[in-house]
Amino acid sequence: MCDPRGAMKIAVLALQGAFREHIAMFRRCGCDAVEARLPGDLADIAGLVIPGGESTTIAKLIDRYSLAEPLLDLARGGVPIFGTCAGTILLSRNRNGCGEAFLELIDITVTRNAYGRQIDSHEADITLTFSPEVPYNALFIRAPVIDETGDGVVVLARHLDKPVFVRQRGILAATFHPELTDDDRVHRYFLEMIEGKNR
Ligand code: GLN
Description:
199 residues, single chain
């Protein structure tokens, strides 16, 4: 369980995908978590989550609701952003063989849906560098693979020799779905990042 953080407002982009589960997890952590659909919903937030779902759909809706500039403004203003799965694809600087340039806020190269068919969706125990004592059960759902990380990208967990959880300053990205488990260590890491407790 997390400490009370009632004053901390976290917005979860709620256009499509697994946003409700993120909100539930942040509320469980004591935060004021809200759904964001319009630029005005991004006012006064301490952090933003771009959830998993379908990256092409979320990208279209971001365009439709004129959210790209406001999202980039948040990053420019130093508001931490956390992408999970499709959210990671939208934050990536490069995408191998798919998709147009998007927010490009973290220096990683990803390939969409790159796990073979048999493990298209699977769970696996991974080790979080900041909490290595207890394995973390990660859920991968048609997840992207992170093929390359640029200088300045810190790898916080790996799976099958590839990074699956990475950070570059104020941008955090996971290829799995931390909101679909009971383990709140990943969300807590993001909150500590907002609080400047881990650098
Ligand atoms: N396969 C999806 C995509 O390419 C991502 C899946 C997910 O977010 N669980 O956008």
